[in-house]
Specification:
heterodimer, A: 436 residues, alpha/beta, Nucleotidyltransferase, domain 5, 3 domains, 5-stranded mixed beta sheet, globular, B: alpha/beta, 4-stranded parallel beta sheet, 17 helices, 49% helix, 10% strand
Chain lengths: 436, 434
């Protein structure tokens, strides 16, 4: 099957979209960009291929006409949980091996055996609790292995260090070295194997409506399809690092414009707030970019600003929006300087302002800056599509809606839950267009 | 994409070597001025009165050019920090700070020798308010004579007779007597006529060079190459046989390039295939000049016309220094330089360039530390888009402050802009291919 892949190498995450020749999205992949774009590209592509297998599996099930949608979703959900668990266990195994190697560090010579034993115990516990992490209805901290494994490793290690008389820092040091090593390695593509093992883990829940043999045939059919990388286009800040010839690289402005058009064909203005830049883009009715503005040397008011605030408040990035939604008033905050954000925050807390209110004010400040960039790009036209990581933040969206209404009246605003893939979608579309 | 092999050394043609000699000789003349008993005038580029200055045997020191030279030699960052240490804000024009920093650090010129203290500050152009403040600071330092020629702004888009008379009157009553007093040399109008005659010869060749960019492919880059081409005529050489000779050589070289169907020459060698033709508004960044240029020619983007190469005079609109009307033509020159034009006439000019030079669009390089000249540039951009239907884009850098040049950001915008042009050219619907 001819496939077209778009890769968006962002400063925070790397995204891939894989589509067929009819522009149908078959798979998506996302990973943290690390400081290694080559690995991030390979991993995200692998993820998009895995997503494609799931889509093909779904299609195979759909072709068995007697099965209802709910039954299909149950099967897919079940298989996906099993697959992700297998994937997690595989990565855990790699991490364990790397940790064991780093425990051989001469620095730890005198406590080598205690460290090795403690590591074995940490990983035993991590393996034991993994199935619960991927059980139906379980909430995970993140989509990335580093976050999920790391947070638990740290917690378990802290407890065990006390018991075994080891320095917690020694264990952390081993972990830090190992996670970097594991993350810089491109995992081998053994997804067929993982699918088989994930399949074996399927519960009665998923299989209820299907003949086991029919299910297996559908999966085998999905895995048998050859996914041909017909054309790949890269975009994003890391694009120069892609081992592609120049024709395979497009600016993210064009990719975001086209991606937004693909999601919402009536889009005329796009706002994208990413990790380190904010872009206002005008597109014509065919998705061609007519005009754009972006922040200049200063990244004030970009996604990273929220990341910094989250760090300062010791919160997860995804917790900021919900907390800001609890605000009872929105104080006026002018500074969107990322460097000053911490000082602004502490100053206001000291004055007795509520955290929720301050956060709401900060969200508004970001959106005011975004509005200024859009107005320099020619203002907001109907329809208006908001993309990028910040579009997932409910408080940011609420402030944006208010500001759009105040300044431009009634405008149809599109926000896609998968908007983080907009650039990659545009890139994949360019890839499709490059081949006739 | 350019396929040229990377060249270790910058490629130089005879005209470039000639200019290099001229600049070096001028700096030697300046650093040796006091020893030779020669008096020194400091003045600015827009609307400069080089021919008149030469009539009094004065050496001509141009602080903006010193700042540019220091910028290109990667010295300006340190000089700017020095000026900031002395209390000049981060928002002040970086030409000013580079100059003040240089003065504070021994006033060493690009040749490594101290520049002389000026005997007279000749402020012959007042369209940039910062110039006035700049010379106030320099005067404070050197306690020297200051001559101010007030040049009325062309608020209505053209100069009137009374404006011209006003400038001529000041030349007669303030500038010429002042320069006589400082130099001890009597003004000789025939000497001025002779210089102006020489200027006009060079100006003819200069315009021919600029207009050669109307051809396809353009044999020159009228911005990155253009800043070299304006060197002699905008600075201390206009009116000299050296300048005339420089433009004769340059014209010859460009005629040869045209005959061979060649594009512009770049520091990395010959330009590859011409893919985009741009008009550029705003000065270039000097601290990363070569990298900045490379971003363009790597993409096959050639600048066919620029407004920056008109800050020292709009010769391509027909102005020539006129030996038959010496003082009047000096007045017209001061009044007519690009920076003295109002916004509507700047827009008209850019529109004309986009059309006459068959450009794909307009790119504005907005200067972070130049508040007066950057104002209104977004309006210019919108209006040009509206009138020509060609895409325009905005990049932001600075003159000589290296801290304000973000290569990744500029490259990102430039590539986006060029790809936007490409996409518009194709005009294909994204769904059309599928």
């Amino acid at each position: 099957m001819r496939c077209f892949i778009g890769i968006d190498l962002g400063s925070t995450t790397t995204k891939a979209v894989l589509m067929d020749e009819n522009l149908e999205i078959l798979g998506r992949g996302i990973t943290n960009s690390r400081s290694n774009y080559d690995t991030a590209t390979a991993v995200t592509k692998q993820e998009a291929r895995i997503g494609t297998r799931f889509t093909l599996f779904r299609k195979a099930l759909e072709s068995q006409a007697r099965n209802g949608r709910a039954a299909i979703e149950a099967v897919i959900g079940d298989l996906e949980r099993g697959f992700r668990l297998e994937q997690f266990l595989g990565q855990l195994e790699q991490l364990h091996q790397a940790c064991a190697r780093h425990a051989e560090d001469p620095r730890l010579a005198d406590k080598k055996r205690a460290v090795a034993a403690t590591l074995d115990e940490i990983f035993r516990r991590l393996r034991a609790e993994a199935p619960a992490m991927f059980a139906k209805g379980a909430a995970r901290r993140s989509d990335f292995f580093r976050d999920n494994a790391g947070s638990r490793f740290v917690q378990i290690a802290e407890g065990l260090a006390k018991e075994s008389g080891l320095a917690y820092e020694d264990l952390l040091h081993v972990y830090d070295k190992s996670i970097i090593e594991v993350e810089s390695r491109v995992p081998e593509d053994d997804s067929a194997d993982k699918f088989a093992r994930g399949f074996a883990r399927m519960t009665a829940d998923g299989q209820a409506a299907f003949e086991p043999a029919a299910l297996k045939r559908a999966l085998d059919a999905a895995l048998a399809v050859e996914i041909e990388e017909t054309y790949v286009v890269g975009t994003g800040y890391g694009r120069v690092r892609l081992p592609f010839p120049k024709e395979h690289i497009r600016s993210e402005i064009l990719c975001h414009g086209l991606g937004a058009h693909m999601m919402y064909p009536a889009t005329r203005t796009v706002l994208d707030i990413g990790g380190q830049d904010t872009k206002g883009i005008q597109v014509d009715p065919t998705g061609i970019v007519e005009n754009f503005q972006m922040n200049d040397r200063c990244a004030a008011g970009c996604g990273r600003y929220l990341g910094y605030i989250a760090d300062e408040m010791n919160l997860g990035l995804h917790e900021l929006g919900p907390m800001a939604m609890q605000a009872t008033k929105v104080p006026r905050i002018n500074s969107t300087c990322t460097v000053f954000a911490g000082a602004e925050l502490r100053d206001r807390l000291a004055l007795g302002e509520k955290r929720e209110d301050i956060l709401a004010g900060l969200h508004r400040a970001i959106m005011l800056r975004a509005m200024s960039i859009i107005s320099r790009a020619g203002g907001i036209r109907d329809q208006f599509t908001f993309t990028g990581g910040v579009a997932k933040n409910a408080a940011a969206v609420r402030e944006l809606r208010k500001l759009v209404k105040e300044n431009y009246g009634e405008v149809h605003i599109n926000i896609d839950p998968d908007s983080i893939y907009t650039g990659a979608l545009g890139a994949a579309t360019f890839a499709r267009r490059a081949v006739n | 994409m350019s396929q040229k092999p990377p060249a270790a050394d910058v490629v130089k043609e005879p005209s470039m070597l000639k200019q290099k000699e001229m600049i070096e000789a001028n700096y030697e003349r300046l650093s040796g001025a006091k020893a030779q008993g020669r008096k020194v005038a400091s003045t600015f580029v827009p609307g400069n009165l080089n021919e008149l200055i030469m009539c009094f045997d004065l050496a001509n020191n141009l602080p903006e050019i010193n700042a540019i030279q220091n910028g290109m030699r990667k010295k300006s960052g340190m000089l700017i920090m020095e000026a900031e240490k002395r209390g000049h804000s981060e928002d002040v024009c970086t030409y000013v700070k580079a100059d003040l920093g240089m003065m504070a650090k021994g006033n060493l010129g690009p040749n490594g020798k101290p520049l002389p203290e000026p005997d007279v500050l000749l402020l012959s152009y007042t369209g940039c308010f910062t110039f006035m403040k700049w010379f106030e600071l320099v005067r404070e330092q050197y306690k020297c004579e200051t001559l101010m020629l007030h040049v009325p702004y062309e608020g209505e888009g053209h100069a009137t007779k009374s404006m011209r008379d006003y400038v001529v009157k000041q030349l007669k009553e303030v500038v010429i007597p002042g320069l006589e007093k400082v130099s001890g040399v009597k003004f000789d109008i025939d000497r001025l006529r002779q210089y102006l005659r020489e200027s006009a010869k060079a100006e003819d060749d200069f315009v021919w060079v600029l207009e050669s960019a109307k051809r396809r492919p353009s044999p020159i880059d009228a911005y990155f190459g253009g800043v070299y081409y304006i060197g002699p005529i905008f600075t201390a050489f206009r009116g000299t046989p050296d300048a005339t000779e420089y433009y004769r050589l340059l014209r010859q070289e460009i005629a040869a390039r045209i005959a061979q169907g060649q594009g512009p020459i770049t520091p990395e060698g010959d330009f590859g295939q011409e893919k985009y033709r741009l008009v550029v508004e705003g000065p270039p960044n000097w601290t990363s000049f070569r990298d900045f240029w490379k971003m363009f020619h790597d993409e096959g983007a050639v600048v066919v016309a620029s407004t920056y190469t008109k800050v020292g005079g709009l010769y391509d609109l027909g102005f020539r220094h006129d030996p038959d009307h010496p003082l009047e033509s000096l007045a017209d020159y001061c009044l007519g330089c690009y920076t003295n034009r109002n916004l509507p006439s700047r827009i008209d000019l850019i529109e004309k360039y986009v059309r006459d030079y068959e450009a794909d669009g307009l790119l504005i390089n907005s200067i972070k530390s130049c508040n007066s000249f950057s104002a209104g540039q977004l309006l210019v951009l919108r209006e040009i888009e509206r009138r020509t239907g060609k895409p325009a884009a905005f990049i932001e850098t600075d003159l000589v402050d290296p801290r304000y040049f973000s290569a990744a950001n500029v490259k990102n915008r430039l590539e986006s802009y060029l790809q936007m042009i490409e996409q518009k050219r194709r005009g294909a619907s994204p769904r059309a291919a599928a």
